[in-house]
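anyone seen this seq b4? input:
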Amino acid sequence: MLLVPVPAGDASTSGKVGPADAASLLLVLVCGVQALRGRVQRPSPLAVLVLGVPAVGLAVATATAGDPYAALPGFVRYLQVFVLVPVAIVLLVRDAGEFRIAAGCFVVLALVQGAVGVVQYATHTGASYQGEYIRAVGTFGPGDVMGMATVVAYGLVVATAAALAPGLPRRVRRTAGASALLLVLPLVLSFSRGSWIATAGAAVLVMGLAGIRRAVQVLLALAAAGVVLVGGLGVGSEMVAERLTSITQVSSAPDQSVTDRYTMWAAAGAMWRERPAAGVGLKGFPANRDSHASLGLSSGSDTAGAGQGYIRQPLLSPHNMYLLVLSEQGLIGLTALAGGWAVLLVAGIRRYVSGGGALRDCGLVAIGLLVWQLTDFLYADIGGPSTVLTGVIIGLAAWWALPSGAGSGADAGAGAAAAAGAAGGGTGRATGPRSCSGAAGR
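predicted toks r here
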């Protein structure tokens, strides 16, 4: 996990394997070796079905593509993120202690990247935004402006869940709450509308599951932090207000990014209507974009700053995961992927509401992260180094929602030290051979 922000040149855009991808593939290899030795958790039959069916949809979309060879890299990427990494997480995470360590790594990564982003805003060394180099992007660079926003949002959701989780020590909950408040600032300075919406949705659900009393306390704290940061200190107040207003400006006065997004959404829908069952094939959206998009689509988006010169980034996806899957994989692929995610969400919430025992903090984290990801998929899709974290989240959600009955559900505490270290900032010591870079997929 901690390898996600390691610079990898143009790996996010050229299709090269970055450090995080290499680490995730190593994780899958280790999982395979451990499975042969019989040293992994035995997944439930439903978990096998939910995590395995997407491979069928991917195979169909690749085989029926106009150019199956060109679709092969897409097949490998989707298989990595939505099948192999989640399966490895389910098999290798043995108990709640290791789950909490992985969750703590999300917070550590978010705090580090958030600190870099705040410095970028304060020193005008960030990515270009409205003519100023103030957009917080962390170490991901302007070519992946969503990278820092994504990892900071992950950490904020985990910290919020830990702050609200019943059963955790008070010191842990206070540390987690302080971490959540700290992460609000870099998330705001990312100027990422999709991340704001997804974080708000996930946080509200987590608060609702944790209880009204706890939710009111956290809402008051977050509101106070927002007033101090944006209102009192004037941190990007005008730009933040303008960014928030632009969310609702769809038909009246949308900016070019909104126009491009809706134009690409329409193009994705047109592709699906041509081939509703299997879509145009993996990696087929860029090749079919111009023949289905209106003249309102620009040629690309401008990126600069954060140590990079001016680059015109081409628009190669609809920035909506559901529409991307629908256009490239058709109803077969969308049903296999989104159907599995829906099962994980419903089963996860059901397990939490029905009890969950001493593992309820794990449930809040898993549900919060999954809801964030599914909401963000309305405004974004996979791409960049942080994509591998998507596989980790799906794996953690499956570990919680579809327990094997032998390991994940049986552990009642997994040690107070591991819980305190992981949920409170990742300083706890792993009880097994996997640490932040191993148990969480990096």
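The chain has one domain: 45-247+319-439. The longest strand covers residues 308-313. kinda curious what u guys think
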